[in-house]
Amino acid sequence: MLADRHHARRTAAAAAANDPGTAFGHVHGLGVNPAEDTVYVATHHGLYSLDGAGERVGTSRADLMGFTVVGEDTFLASGHPAPDEAGPSNLGLIRSTDAGQTWEEVSLGGQSDFHGLTATGDRVYGLDSGTGTVMRSDDGGETWQQGASLPARDLDVDPADPDRVVATTAEGLVVSTDGGVTFAPAELQPPRPLVVVDHLPADEGGPTPLVGLDTAGVLWRFPGAAWSSAGPENGEPHAFTAVDEDTYLAAFGTDIARTDDGGSTWLVVSGSAR
């Protein structure tokens, strides 16, 4: 169960507006900008920063279906323009290098709507909602190769191995070790299917820990040998990001919540958007 955000520990990434709850609407993605430690929220009505004001970033009100932070002030996104905004019905891949203030088209404008994006280095993966396939780019999103057809909900690339990507499906976790060309069920699965996943930095010489939230909103960790769970059922998650091994942010219903104790307790940190 989520606790009220007034008990949340105050850090830049956890700061929120005065009132709990949010007017963000449907949240599609979350990410922390390493340049300023601010949480960014990709929504049906544009990009917002969770920095105490809950304000829209820039002027675009595009429906950002896919979103990921790839570096300091550098974001990748996809989706659709707002009804009164110019542009193709599918944005393709767009990029911001000023923390979401402005965006430029990188590729596939008018063609693709990625409902999931993940990247490490120049390797980018996207879930193309139009074709139902995993797409891969080896040059930062300029050109693309089509991979496996997959009814995936979310995907995340292993930061230590760009050819290894995991995806969540209604039947369970699947893994690719060939750059998204083929996927196979993960050998070990949590009891309930995961909806959203993320990787943590690997210990030197060790496997990259995987974390995720299942259909009930329970956090699961897989450091390489077995799955372990932590915390309560919070409801089905819509978005998720791992900050470090103890700190995670997630969107549950109309709330954005944070845990600083590895998922044991969650505090609502979202504020009213404007």
Automatic annotation (TrEMBL):
Residues 1-10 have a biased composition (Basic residues). Pfam families: BNR (PF02012). InterPro entries: BNR_rpt (IPR002860), Glycosyl_F510_1955-like (IPR054817), WD40/YVTN_repeat-like_dom_sf (IPR015943). Coiled coil: none annotated. Residues 1-20 are annotated as: Disordered. It comes from the Bacteria. This is BNR/Asp-box repeat protein. It comes from Georgenia soli. The lineage of its organism: Bacteria, Bacillati, Actinomycetota, Actinomycetes, Micrococcales.
